[in-house]
Design goal:
five-stranded parallel β-sheet, Rossmann fold, about 40% helix, 7 helices
């Protein structure tokens, strides 16, 4: 990875608010969000190249074979990955590049010797997490149940992260994460 922006991994279970938190963070000077790739179908309102790079499975697998991802994993039956070249370009002109990835992707980055700051976003409780997953309305009951089971398994991984932040109040959560990023930026000597 080139010198430049710090790479900030923001993980947490489905429905915890990663997208909402990242949307607030990128309004701050020097923070950008990496656009990751997925084979899942777009949800209502999502745009290719803005929310994700939506790829067919075969195209995604070709990119994997070519070494085009920093990390990739299968989650909820779909493939997800972080495109290497695009992220390297973003790091040249930003202070922090946010990667919204699952715990598998974060682990792959850690074991791949990529220098990252990891932040785990927690829900205020299991009942609230269930409610958030259900209100998305984009999936059927089986998918909601799968996401909830996976979310509980992901919660068990939070101690592997540099920081854990509870997303109970969006503004407080964003402020905490912003402070963590700023402290890391200063300590990196950039």
């Amino acid at each position: 990875m080139a010198d430049g922006a710090i790479l900030v991994v923001l993980s947490g279970p489905s429905g915890v608010g990663k997208t909402a938190v990242s949307e607030r963070l990128v309004k701050e000077d020097g923070i950008v969000r990496a656009i990751t790739a997925t084979t899942r179908a777009p949800r209502a309102g999502e745009q290719d190249g803005v929310d994700y790079h939506f790829l067919e499975r075969t195209a995604f697998e070709r990119q994997v074979a070519a070494g085009g991802f920093l990390e990739h994993a299968e989650v909820h039956g779909n493939l997800y990955g972080s495109p290497k070249d695009a992220i390297e370009k973003q790091r040249l002109s930003a202070r922090a590049v946010l990667l919204l990835i699952d715990v598998q992707g974060a682990e792959l980055l850690r074991t791949g010797q990529v220098e990252i700051l990891t932040i785990f976003l927690e829900p205020p409780g299991e009942e609230e997490l269930k409610r958030r997953i259900a209100v998305r309305g984009a999936e059927d009951d089986d998918v909601i149940d799968l996401r909830l089971r996976n979310a509980l398994a992901e919660m068990a991984e939070k101690n592997k992260y540099d920081h854990c932040v509870v997303n109970d109040d969006l503004e407080d959560c964003v402020e905490q994460i912003s402070s963590i990023i700023e402290a890391e930026w200063r300590s990196s000597g950039q």
